[in-house]
Amino acid sequence: QVQLVESGGGLVQPGGSLRLSCGASAMLFSIYNMGWYRQAPGKQRELVAAITSGGSTNYADSVKGRFTISRDNAKNTVYLQMNSLKPEDTAVYYCKGRVVGGRDDYWGQGTQVTVSS
Description:
Order of helices and strands: EEEEEEEEEEE
Number of strands: 11
Strand content: over 45%
Structural class: mainly beta
Radius of gyration: 13 Å
Number of helices: 0
């Protein structure tokens, strides 16, 4: 069965950086569109960044210029490089995958990112 596992979260000071990774298994990773979402306490889950199977990207306005999504199909992994982190970036970050043309979404278990001094 498809499995997504996030890693790389943690506690970081404002202005710092983190890189999240999402490793995929039991799927032909290259034909999946991938995305990073986040959910802060008391808020709805929101899209942070997405990357298509072809490598096109899009970002939430709140993270443009600070976050970068990328993928390595050889390693079945999607990354989220987060720079200039702010306290409002604090959330659980989730990885999601959907095969191109498909309707089923696959989610990871999430990784906590806390930005605080």
